Amino acid sequence: MKQQVEIEFKNLLTAEEFKHIKQVFHVQDSQFIYQENHYFDTPGFSLKEKEAALRIRVKNDTYTLTLKQLMTQGVLETHERLTKEETLSLLNGTSVITGEMASVLQTMGIPLEQLQHFGTLTTRRAELPYEGGILVLDHSQYLQTDDYEIEYETNDAVRGKQVFEQLLSSLNIPIRPTMNKIKRLYIKKYGVEKRT
């Protein structure tokens, strides 16, 4: 298990803006990597109530269980590698999370036996270095929805915000309040943001 603090800025894009950014940065379709994000929570959305999220990401034949917890500055990510078999049994509900991740979740008061897979979001992602950070282009699909997003990952929240907003300005892209992917999936699935 490993942990890291993620500081990122994100903005939703129109399909036309996404295409324009690809042209500006000379991003080829072949640079996009496919990944699946499978999200978990309890029926009462215990994780969401704690402003946390749990997912399994499948990418390049690797399987990573990630817990995201909101911090004052950024998001604390806790990662644990899984086997394909462990992933499939969690997705179909025939097993529960074990090991160090289970201990972290139990400390949060999350009932492991109630965790269930509630949705999947697939993303084609391209990453490129930009101004000391990483620029990310995402085309995501979920529940008959396509969305496009640009993210900027950085180690410096103050400078990162300036760099990101200057980039959007230079591309004539308005700053849009952008929820994270799991919240967009919640709203699409339930019509409103799910609350208990």
Automatic annotation (TrEMBL):
Gene3D superfamilies: Hypothetical Protein Pfu-838710-001. This is Uncharacterized protein YjbK. Signal peptide: none annotated. Pfam families: CYTH (PF01928). InterPro entries: CYTH-like_dom_sf, CYTH_domain, Uncharacterised_YjbK. SUPFAM superfamilies: CYTH-like phosphatases. Residues 4-192 form the CYTH domain.
